[in-house]
Structure formats: structure tokens, C-alpha cells
Amino acid sequence: MIEDVGYVDRLDRMRLYPWSVEAVRLLRRAGYAAVVVTNQAGVARGMISEQVVVEVRDRLQQDLARAGARLDGHYHCPHLPDAPLAAYRRRCGCHKPEPGMIRQAAADLTLDLDRSVVVGDRWTDVRLARAAGAAAILVKTGYGASQAARPAPGATADAVTANLLEAAGWILRHLPHPRRD
User: Fold this and answer.
1) Given this model, what pLDDT does residue 181 score?
2) For a 10 Å CB count at each end of the chain, is N or C smaller?
3) Closest to 78 in 3D by CA, of 109, 37, 115
């Protein structure tokens, strides 16, 4: 959804890819929930604060809203088992590829994970999808092109697309209409 610039430690570093708004609009119009689940190891490493994560989330939602789109949820994991900051030092079930964040989103938003899709630019996103029982799409934006060039053992995506908009098209063509119980 946003350009990879390393740690987004200031709001002026956050930029949406030009196709992100249309992808979110298309998916939501078709009945899918649009949810972000993101590891934020920079918090555990003391490089950014959780307040910055919240500000970026709010700015993302504002930018989408200005263009007529919105996210249904945003979840982040600030933990690392070897974090320099003791408050964030732990092994948890929410750090991708563990499915904690996606399961929380499903519970909060009444989502059917069997009819859900995880779209991401890393093999950990594909592993997250499999751990949650969802379909998986690897996009070639961000880290995706280098990830696609080096397939991870045991991780297979349902599709590899150029970007989020192409992923949305693939979802709409290939997967059943979502059911939100």
C-alpha cells in the first residue's frame, strides 16, 4: 500500500502507491474488508515509537478517505524476542508469520478466514496466509521482486502480481465472494 522507504519515522516519509486507493475501493465494493497487519520491529529496536505507528495509520486512513476509500482495520506487532527495549522483548503470536493479528482482525470484524486473502511483499506474508487458512498473493512492489526471485522453501503463493491493484483484480476473478458472518 505504501512505498518502502525503510522505517517510516516521520509522516512526510509515508507515500501511498498510486494504485493503492483504487485497489482498496475495488475490494471493499466487492464485499471484502481491507485490513492492514504489519510487523513494526522498529518499535522494539527503539528506532520509532508506537505513537509514530499510530500517526502513520491515521494518516493512511485520511489519505484513503480523501480519495473515497478506507481500511476496516489496522493491526501492528511491535515485538521481537531479542528486542533491545525490554518492554517489547517477547515471543508472541502476533509477529508475522504467526497468525495472531489476522485472527484478531477476523474476530473483531467477523471475517471468514477461509474466504480471506493476505497480500504482501514477503514470504512471511505468504506463510501468514497459510497459518491463518487464507489465500496468499505475493506482490512485486517493496521487497516482493527480490522475494519472488528467491522462493522460500515451503512457501507457495496462490498468485504473484506486479502490485496491489493487480492483486485485487486476481482476487475478484479467482476467489468466491467473501462472506462476513
Assistant:
1) 47
2) C
3) 37
